[in-house]
Amino acid sequence: MRLIVVSNRVACPKGDEPIEGGLAAALVPAVKTSGAIWVGSSRKQTSSTEQEGFAQMEPLGRGAVVTIGISSEQFGGFYEGFSNSALWPAFHSRTDLISTNVEHYVSYREVNALIARSLLRLARPDAMFWVHDYHFLTMASELRKLGIAQPIGFFFHTPFPSRDIILSLPHHSELIQAMLNYDLIGFQTDADLENFADYLRQELRLTGNDNVFTTNQGATRLACFPIGIDVEQFAEQAVTSANRPEATRLRSSLQGSKLVIGVDRVDYSKGLLNRLRALDQLLQRHPEFKRAVTFLQVGVPSRGKIPVYRQLQGELASLVGDINGRHSEIDWIPIRYLNKGFSRASLAGFYRAAHVGLVTSLNDGMNLVAKEYVAAQNPVDPGVLVLSRFTGAAKQLDAALVVNPHDIDGVSRAVVQALGMPVKERRERWDAMMETLKSSSLDMWFSDFVSNLAECPRAERCAWTPDVASTPVRSRQLELTAIP
Ligand code: F6P
Known about the structure:
With 484 residues, this protein is α/β, with parallel strands linked by helices. It has 18 helices and 15 strands.
């Protein structure tokens, strides 16, 4: 069987290079061991349309990564436009931030069609396709139009919000109807699955049977597959990384103060401003923590061409400056804000050095940082995870200190509780979380999804739906370079 994995961002990290985003970080090891072919956009946006569709292949472990060239004009409408200014805010329940136009949508549909065309080159009779994330909601309908009858699965890494919110998304009906060309759709949590099923029932008037929805396009099964991490590997990495120069320098620079760590892309869904406000409040209410605690926030720059992301960068920098200005001492600064990415090996060492891991997302599909923080801890003297209830991870890691990130006071109190938690309680909570992580690992997520996809009945598929067919996609000649 040939497994073809598709996602917008792919990664083929060399040595210690950082990997951006939870999706790519999870798929690198999975592709390496499974031997899958992983196809995505090159992100080296081509300036001339002649190069559009150009495919390059690079080995990755037992598998390979194929990147497809997309013109910069089209990539902008697809990525900064419809994907990240319409779908991302909608799926993270920020309907106030939806800002898109029909050009963006056309680019979105065209990029889906372009990548589908490229996939034809890889489609052996025994192939199965696993498409990831909101960038490619219409990929299956494009593949079916091209005559692909093989199983096609989709996984939502983001949340899927309630029907009321989806109704704010332009073209929602076309998009969700197009998704019924997938054989299997996976979700991070039962709540996400339920929201999707509710949309199908209420808006498309479909009646599901045991989460299987049948239309003239065939049967689509909905199922929940919470994504995990390679717990043992990350725990081993943390032991090794603890002795790397970066982690050693970090520990010695703390001068006895306890470390609280946060690691996120700079994204409004991560609740970074609330997090800083909670730390500000902690220092105002508990001056005894001055010099006794240091907060390290890694903020990986993200989607910098989108105004709301640039604005957030500025707000964060200014709030960090304000808090540090008010609370710093001559020999101590409360917040160290590093506006850059680190390799996973470096992060593992930082997590192990931290007494508290702080995740305050306002809305997050899973949040693998929470899982990695737990896996990196020293079993004898583990740190405490303070975790937003609005993450997929909180549905599994209920032994964390689960907080409401909108309650600044509550987050601040949870950090104080974490900093003072006796070792016995820390161990009990950590043991419980490790057990959960081991029973829901990355390997299990990957193989569970693939085996469920393989079992999907091979219905006679046809790609046609009236709404999708009427979408105003510009016709374009696509030249594909042969993939070796
Ligand atoms: O969890 C994975 C994820 O949040 C994806 O949903 C998203 O595509 C990625 O990380 C990061 O986004 P980007 O590729 O735009 O940097």
